[in-house]
Amino acid sequence: MTSSTALLTDRYELTMLQGALADGTADRRCVFEVFTRRLPHGRRYGVLAGTGRVLEALADFRFGAEELDWLARERVVDDATLEYLSTYRFTGSVRGYAEGEMFFPHSPVLTVEGTFAEAVLLETVVLSVLNYDSAIASAASRMTSAAIGRPVLEMGARRAHEQAAVAAARAAAVAGFAGTSNLEAGRRYGLPTIGTAAHAFTLLHDDEEAAFAAQVASSGPGTTLLVDTYDVRRGVERAVAAAGTGLGAVRLDSGDLGVLAQEVRAQLDGLGAHGTKIVVTSDLDEYAIASLAVAPVDTYGVGTSLVTGSGAPTCGMVYKLVAREGSDGRLAPVAKASTSKGSVGGRKSAARRLDGDGRAVEEVVVGGDDAAVRAWTPDADDLRALVVPLVIDGEVCPGWTGAEGVTAAAARHAASRDELPRGARRLSADEAAIPTVTLTV
Amino acid sequence: MTSSTALLTDRYELTMLQGALADGTADRRCVFEVFTRRLPHGRRYGVLAGTGRVLEALADFRFGAEELDWLARERVVDDATLEYLSTYRFTGSVRGYAEGEMFFPHSPVLTVEGTFAEAVLLETVVLSVLNYDSAIASAASRMTSAAIGRPVLEMGARRAHEQAAVAAARAAAVAGFAGTSNLEAGRRYGLPTIGTAAHAFTLLHDDEEAAFAAQVASSGPGTTLLVDTYDVRRGVERAVAAAGTGLGAVRLDSGDLGVLAQEVRAQLDGLGAHGTKIVVTSDLDEYAIASLAVAPVDTYGVGTSLVTGSGAPTCGMVYKLVAREGSDGRLAPVAKASTSKGSVGGRKSAARRLDGDGRAVEEVVVGGDDAAVRAWTPDADDLRALVVPLVIDGEVCPGWTGAEGVTAAAARHAASRDELPRGARRLSADEAAIPTVTLTV
């Protein structure tokens, strides 16, 4: 398998390219904008994630011999188009919100500028990455919010496509998760990895005592013992017997976790294991986490609901042509006219308006004269600019990719979430936390 | 990036391995079973997909220098475990349902047998693949059912992780989709790829006439023209003017599709374009498809709802140790005892009981004496065996992987779906179409 990302692309991008190469419009300068028309039902904000992965995918977006041979064999495009693809390299520019930033309806989270040919080809992979990663980060942010400072761990690999799982672990880290069970995510993005044992390890052994003894011998008393394979009370007893009062943690993966955590805490304390922590897993989502706020739980492990976006498994982000060079050589705004999907043409910029306490009050989308928008920077103290350069003339700007990009995105997410108005973090369904308004320049 | 799948694994699989290697239980013969406790709410059947991809991932499940170096550097496991991993190769056996087969609660869709060490490591990647792919195929099957024979095309890449999108296209093909927009899925699994143009192509041009002329010049009159960028009625007029009455199809991507399709059909017929087909897209799901049954629609394109499993973005499949060699050297059934997650121990086989008309009436799960289950074959004419060999002593059986595997799975899906009882294919929420019963041998 090649590492090229070039065929992670809808066929019509290549068919359009062929048509545009044939009639000379392929070279027209174009501005494509990524935005969403609405947040998932009831969600108050979205979290942009995946920008770093978009930039990584861009670097591998090359049509090599394997890709070109297949396209030729399948007659997907004609020879002139194959010729163009053989030297394809994105030479345009990308600007957008910093990864980890909050977004709202019509926030221009990414803007791609280049010729039609070079920019149209990126649509599918850009949207795949941003829609999935942002869906996960948006759910993850609600979970870390609900955990009121307790660590939340990502354990959802088994409930997502095996590569999506890696991206989910990364997106969770952007939104404040403290670790992941996913080894590949650890390797690729420098995330802390966690995990000790499943029920299978206990069942493998002749009895629970033997299993706990083996785990403690192998991983030390600081390990986390899973105590609900047979009977939780006996499990806790045996866990402390095996590891001593220095046992790191016990994990509960079933039952009424709130009640159970109370009982287990009392039992651990009674056994003198005051420092032993309680980790709970078992189909948690942000609501279950919130409901455990008063329980003596130290750490949450989240799986299914994280990797499926907790009810919103994708975002509705679209990649729309908003301006293009006409036959007169001038850049002109364009937009689909018909029906309810109407979009606003023209290049945009954006800022967040803050009140005197530094709380967000408005998402300001800046539109108008192309040169003015391009050059726009906030001219008032209460506006925080949101758009940063990501790719300049085909060169990826440093700091956004790899482990470094994830660290920066997590910091951005934390700062921007702190800036949300009071009430924006409650879980109940409501409108977007701040309105999106338009500023014409 | 290496092509190894070995780190698409939860850390605890390796931690358990280390513990078991240290105390000598790693060599115990084990049987792990993949099954689901329930179907998603209201679903009447599930469709198993991903088996071919599991077998492909198994072939690449090797710890190479890059993986071992990272594990050593991060001190994920000790030296003895690294030594074991460096020569890891699955030498056990895998049996399971043929890909494309229907499944129900407790259907033993995959059984992995080997030493604890070699079988436990596969848990995460096996579940990632089967849970995602089966979720997509299960949704896709409802869509092809609702389409009553009209072709359904997969166009969801932009709403899924970029690699998950490839798997989704494949799973959709298993469930009867006729094509995909995803080029990589076309290349990897030999699927027909489709797609002509987006709104961006029309907007790129000075007007719709120029865009249609360019597309017809480049792709021929048999192409599909997207007619809703400005005004549908004018769009259809211009489409037929550009391509002639031999125009392949028009695509509608917005609006009230049922009404619009009627109007467009009448307009096309009025223009003499009787053979021009109507393709509808725009956020379709199985319900929208069903509601268009009486509309003059020729082809459906489905995106978001397909790649997100139409409300059920994952399956609840688990990978459970059901039997293992004890200290006496004999294989014994095991199962987690506590709380509501109780599982049934022991190896299983399965068959589907059919009535005199060849309609499914029961899912028969066969359990009991290990040797008897292992050797079990249906002894009655009304039982169709469901379990087939997939890997024997580490060797993948031919026919299940690559393009060949997808073709076989699509055939299996079609035949098994035809066998479902009347009413099983209606979309409204209900119980599993057939009950799961146990047969002890």
Automatic annotation (TrEMBL), chains A, B:
EC number, UniProt record: 6.3.4.21
Residues annotated as domain Nicotinate/nicotinamide phosphoribosyltransferase: 153-212
Free-text function comment from the UniProt entry: Catalyzes the first step in the biosynthesis of NAD from nicotinic acid, the ATP-dependent synthesis of beta-nicotinate D-ribonucleotide from nicotinate and 5-phospho-D-ribose 1-phosphate.
Swiss-Prot/TrEMBL keywords: Glycosyltransferase, Ligase, Phosphoprotein, Pyridine nucleotide biosynthesis, Transferase
Pathway: Cofactor biosynthesis; NAD(+) biosynthesis; nicotinate D-ribonucleotide from nicotinate: step 1/1
Family that this chain belongs to: Belongs to the NAPRTase family.
Stored InterPro entries: Aldolase_TIM, N/Namide_PRibTrfase, NAPRTase_N, Nic_PRibTrfase-Fam, Nic_PRibTrfase_pncB, Nicotinate_pribotase-like_C
Gene3D superfamilies: Aldolase class I, nicotinate phosphoribosyltransferase
A Gene Ontology biological process term: NAD+ biosynthetic process via the salvage pathway
Free-text description of this protein's post-translational modifications in UniProt: Transiently phosphorylated on a His residue during the reaction cycle. Phosphorylation strongly increases the affinity for substrates and increases the rate of nicotinate D-ribonucleotide production. Dephosphorylation regenerates the low-affinity form of the enzyme, leading to product release.
Catalysis performed (reactions): 5-phospho-alpha-D-ribose 1-diphosphate + nicotinate + ATP + H2O = nicotinate beta-D-ribonucleotide + ADP + phosphate + diphosphate
GO molecular function: glycosyltransferase activity; nicotinate phosphoribosyltransferase activity
Cellular compartments per GO CC: cytosol
Source organism of the structure: Cellulomonas pakistanensis
Pfam families for the chain: NAPRTase, NAPRTase_N
Domain Nicotinate phosphoribosyltransferase N-terminal: 7-131
Protein name, UniProt field: Nicotinate phosphoribosyltransferase
